[in-house]
Amino acid sequence: MTRPAFRPTACAAAALALALTLTGCGARVAPPEGAARDDRPAAVTLENCGRAVTYAKRPERVVTNDVGITELMFALGLEDRMAGYVMPDDRGDLSKVPWKGGYDRAKWLSKDAITKELVLDARADLVFAGWNYGFGEDNGLTPDSLRRLGVDTYVLTESCRNGPGATRGIMPPLDALYTDLTNLGKLFGVERRAQKLVADFKQQVARAQAEAPRGAARPTVFLYDSGQDKPFTSGRYAAPHDIITKAGGNHLMADLADSWTTVGWETIVARDPDVIVINDYGDTTAAQKRAFLLSHPPLAQVSAVKHRRIVTLDYVDLVESPRNPAAITTLSAYLSGVRR
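Given the sequence above, the corresponding structure tokens read:
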């Protein structure tokens, strides 16, 4: 199932504070360490989705797809290495986005789906996207198809396929975030910057965990993305798994070996979550999603619905992105106030 691209919105104060520390929130970031524009460093080989991929040189014209992927580049100060990004036009208020400077300087290429034609028109030398985050056999845009056109690719680790079929995810979600930041640091010659970012994120997560509910006080949490006949939700390989568990909750669908997929309402009712997290994006507003959950007859006796324990996080908080640690802080504060 193809995930649409979504808008970035203002993040929690914790995310903004972290961004100010790391990037100056719009201040000009120094060029990559030791990387001049005419450098021709030795080839870099990275492991991406379980496969060794060799890049002959540092990319200079990267095209990214979707907000979380784009902000990974911005968090590393790599907007000057981008030909541009693909994202819908409903991007919200960017004035308070942690990496506003990246949006100011990088070119917005399209509000529509990424295509081969767009990539070629941008003279891209690398496309950074993910399976169902731009890449897919149905649209003919795959790493193999781009390789035949002379364009390198890097696949978002959260989206890596874990075998035949459409199931995705090969490692815990925060590990996927740290893996991509580390790999991008090596590829673009900003390893020290990537290491500091990962270290700071780990410290932020540790602080949130220290304040999170423990033991019997941990509520069970269901992530509601969309869908009325059947809910679209996240398994243990999507970012919400680590966001929920590190924030002091028990992830309702932790046994689901996939990233994003559809389940049945009967499963949700039987497992009776204490809290529901709404993924805020798209044409259906968070308020409309909340109203549906509160009025959907099968959910009437579910604890989270009966007690109206429903909290909203933004899409960019809940897909792999540099906003994941701040989302853990935000959710931890909410879960700490839950009394069952």
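The chain has two domains: 13-204, 214-336. Try to locate this feature in the token string yourself.
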